[in-house]
Amino acid sequence: QVRLVESGGGLVQPGGSLRLSCAADGSDSRWYSMGWYRQTSGKQREWVADISSGGEPKYAPSLKGRFTISRDNDKDTMYLQMNSLKPEDTGVYYCREYYTHNWGQGTLVTVSS
């Protein structure tokens, strides 16, 4: 049973950056695609980005250029680098592994001055 643990959320000013991490414990997650999702105020959970086991990224069109997904298979960890953050990026960010379809517990990102 895979356990996904997100970290790296917090309070950041508009225009700032954060790097989120998703550590996978208890699985061979390196062999599977993974993704980031988010739930912002008043909206349903939405897809942010995916990364294949080989490191090929895909992004939601509205976020491409500001967000970068990556992974370190030796550490069983996936990352989301978020730059030029906007108040509307505020929300809970979740990671997901696509073999087990498990979710992490989420990490809160707040973009505010």
How do the strands of the widest beta sheet line up side by side?
Answer: 2-10-9-4-5-6
Overall, the morphology is globular
**Number of DSSP helical runs:** 0
Supply the helix-strand structural class. Answer: mainly beta
* Extended strand count: 10
The whole-angstrom Rg is 13 Å
Compute the separation of the termini in Å. Answer: 40 Å
Describe this structure in words.
- The chain is mainly β and 113 residues long.
- It has strands spanning 3-7, 10-12, 18-25, 34-40, 46-51, 57-59, 67-72, 77-82, 91-97, 107-111.
- It contains no helices and ten strands.
- Strand 5 (46-51) and strand 6 (57-59) form a beta hairpin.
- 27% of the residues are buried.
- The mean pLDDT is 94.
Keywords:
mainly beta, 0% helix, globular, four-stranded antiparallel beta sheet, six-stranded mixed beta sheet, single chain, 113 residues, 10 strands
Describe what is shown at a glance.
The protein has 113 residues and is mainly beta. 0% of the residues lie in helices and 50% in strands.
Q: Layout of SSEs?
A:
Elements: E1 3-7, E2 10-12, E3 18-25, E4 34-40, E5 46-51, E6 57-59, E7 67-72, E8 77-82, E9 91-97, E10 107-111
Parallel strand pairs: 2-10
Antiparallel strand pairs: 1-3, 3-8, 4-5, 4-9, 5-6, 7-8, 9-10
